[in-house]
């Protein structure tokens, strides 16, 4: 091996997880190197051309609050922006932006290149070097080896290999040994991980065809425009600076003819012919799966999404497929407006190796290997946002390990990032994991609009959020608190104009003085609507007004969830000593002993979420810990 120098942190992979991991480690002062099989694939979007969406928008806002880059990057490169779920409550509002794929990747690469402590290297990492500590139960990482035999010594490694490990792409009877978008697969790293005793899984995901926009009749489709009032993803972005013309998307539908083409050719799909045996994503099924599993549905939505400003390529969202090329052509041409479409890139399924994430601590470090971290789709997750969130946390914790500091852990009650990582590390994933609002028990508290108020302090303590930015967040929190306190003391007297306004908005008039806070709580009214009748209403930024309205309107629900969180914290705060001998605890069922010994949970809360561990088992643990460690 040729020695290629010493580094603090080595990041393997340049996708969304790798970018955040490398930037976090470098910005925390670590000498960091990022390896990518192809540097032109940095922050590539091999599938959907968008960032955010339901629950994923929450993750992007949280990444930003902690000091990550994804939100800033999409704010600079979006071509359309929409706030989703506006007909529902604020807990599930989610920002979603169409990206210019090339611009997104190009800007992120430039950010990486300009980071002082960060070096980039185009090569394949084929092996992880490690040594066993005395006794052989735990080891530590010493470096990585490249395909050319170069040895890069380091204190920590972050694996962000995405869907590249032993990847193969399939459609019809075509099987190509490659990563996404025809890029080279990582052939040898899987074997190196197995040699370290790391358990691997085989997962599958897929992507639809890309179609030439010049061959689509958009007049036969429903136009989907962006919002007039553009909301940035980043709390650091001035909304005025990102106003720009937006590019529309379009909506069309499959029909019985589409479904007939698919059903006639199911035997030619590797999904149904038995060629693909890997586990696929339940919540992002292929169009073949949709037609089979939801046979009662006469049609399915299909969104036509532009891939950028300077290209005619259109992403056919909702029609991921691995059917043969001729079937894809026939199938897509049954859609209204796509009768004459020309496919530029065929849809395909991709199989790849990933790890069983239950081998990880909540810090995303492997339990058996000190200094080895893992983030993104290699952990069994799906999606750019899930990957970036894990990458950020793994990068922070890899840097902190190199600095001999305790890791940063986001609890389930603190953020969607906490829910994501806890789910993966505690339960593992039997199929590609997708973040959803329903996975968060405290989603009314974990809204996308308050991510900065929830997590900026952690980002500041970790060293990624500046003192100035943290001070601005504190100032914002103070202004929200002050205005809520003031509003609760304001009484509005009945008047013709006020009662006329109330009736026009479907609200009953008042006959005597009414507290402004009580009126705000009415479903049909809001803080901003009533400001005209509040003579002493101060001039406040829109984000402060938004928080005042939400915190007053949902006060009862929020108090209830805060009480639940307090109970949660009590059980989460009870740490379980590492290496506890569960076989010696009388009263624990055999299955619980086996699962707890295998998973080695870090606290009682994590233990309670392990499949096979019952509330009765947790009670036994509580009693045992109280007696043994009080």
How would you explain this protein's 3D organization?
The structure is a single chain. Helix content is 35%, strand content 19%. With 630 residues, the chain is α+β, with helices and mostly antiparallel strands. It has 4 domains: 2-202 and 352-462, FAD/NAD(P)-binding domain (3-Layer(bba) Sandwich), CATH 3.50.50.60; 210-351, Beta Barrel (Elongation Factor Tu (Ef-tu), domain 3); 480-560, Orthogonal Bundle (Arc Repressor Mutant, subunit A); 574-629, GidA associated domain, C-terminal subdomain (DNA polymerase, domain 1, Orthogonal Bundle), CATH 1.10.150.
List strands and helices in order, with pairings.
Layout: E1 2-12, H1 16-27, E2 32-36, E3 50-52, H2 56-65, H3 70-77, E4 78-84, E5 94-99, H4 101-113, E6 118-122, E7 125-132, E8 139-146, E9 150-159, E10 168-171, E11 174-176, H5 189-195, E12 200-207, E13 210-212, E14 222-224, E15 249-253, H6 256-264, H7 270-273, H8 287-293, E16 301-306, E17 313-317, H9 325-332, E18 343-345, E19 348-355, E20 369-370, E21 372-374, H10 384-402, H11 416-427, H12 451-462, H13 467-487, E22 491-492, H14 496-504, E23 514-515, H15 516-520, H16 527-530, H17 542-553, H18 555-572, H19 590-599, H20 604-608, H21 615-629
Parallel strand pairs: 1-2, 1-9, 2-6, 8-20, 9-21
Antiparallel strand pairs: 3-5, 4-5, 7-8, 8-9, 10-11, 10-19, 12-19, 13-17, 13-18, 14-15, 15-16, 16-17, 22-23
* Nearest-integer average pLDDT: 94
Q: Total domains, how many?
A: 4
Highest CATH level, the class of the largest domain: Alpha Beta
Say how many strands there are.
23
Structural class: alpha+beta
End-to-end CA span? 51 Å
Q: Outline, from the CA principal axes?
A: globular
| Radius of gyration of CA atoms, rounded to a whole number | 26 Å
CATH A-level architecture of the largest domain: 3-Layer(bba) Sandwich
Q: Biggest β-sheet, characterized?
A: 8 strands, mixed
Q: DSSP strand (E) fraction?
A: 15-25%
Which percent bin holds the helix content?
25-40%
Low-confidence stretches: none
- CATH homologous superfamily of the largest domain, by name? FAD/NAD(P)-binding domain
CATH topology of the largest domain: FAD/NAD(P)-binding domain
Number of helices: 21
